[in-house]
Amino acid sequence: MHRLEQLRTWLASVLPGQSFELAPASADASFRRYFRATFADGSPSRVVMDAPPEKEDVRPWLHVAELFRAAGAHVPDVLAHDLEQGFLLLSDLGSTTYLQALKAQDDAPQAVRTAHHLYADALGALAAIQCASRPGVLPEYDRALLARELQLFPEWYIARHKGVALTEAETAMLNTAFERILAVNLAEPQVFVHRDYHSRNLMLLDPAEGRGANPGIIDFQDAVYGPITYDLVSLLKDAYVRWDEEQVLDWTIRHWERARKAGLPVGSDFAAFYTDFEGM
Fold this sequence. Notes:
Number of domains: 2
CATH superfamily of the largest domain: Aminoglycoside phosphotransferase (APH), C-terminal lobe
Structural class: alpha+beta
CATH topology of the largest domain: Aminoglycoside 3'-phosphotransferase, Chain: A, domain 2
Strand order of the largest sheet: 1-2-3-5-4
CATH class of the largest domain: Alpha Beta
Radius of gyration: 21 Å
Mean pLDDT: 93
Strand content: 15-25%
Number of helices: 10
Largest sheet: 5 strands, antiparallel
Distance between the termini: 47 Å
Shape: globular
Order of helices and strands: HEEEHEEHHHHHEEEEHHH
């Protein structure tokens, strides 16, 4: 049976008597696919995850969803699941990302107000996730993993994208810089880290539609236990939207102040925190 037909059959079994239509919702950089199910009777739409079990394990997604939900973050509710087939039925957080919401603003003053509102919510959710952190429940963002990700720069950007072959001296110089970066990163306090906390993985929700409070958070299955500034840098130095340094500094200060009040492991010296932020 074709994979999509398997999914339809399963969905019909968990939603007996309901007529539905499936349409592609999104896909990510994996073998997972997402479909939006809409219903003839006007019931709220749902999202169905299709994760072929021979390619993707949905258990990390379910585990992180439980942790983040317990922290008070708004992640999709799991309405039904079949681990053997790799299907999840989820609540629908809508189709408007933070990035789309920000780009839709034509009026400059309104765009600024929208950004401040959205980022206040995103920083609040991030603080809630960090406050729920504890060791031993997520993989560690350890030296090996951080070093492997640093190597993406010479392997993919310098060699493949730019077509440049580094000399031995240049490689040694780069590795020395990486060692200094790693020393800063690994000395930071450790918290839950989403790993992709940015404008394409935060959803704009309309309370009037009953979807709940902003932001809806998605694509969290690779979460780890690691440096406290990692997600903050992902959000404020987003690859998809650029903010001037003054704005980044303002939001960083606000998050640091919130973190201190919440009892998160950040020091009383903002300059030291910002050094860690810049080092990340």
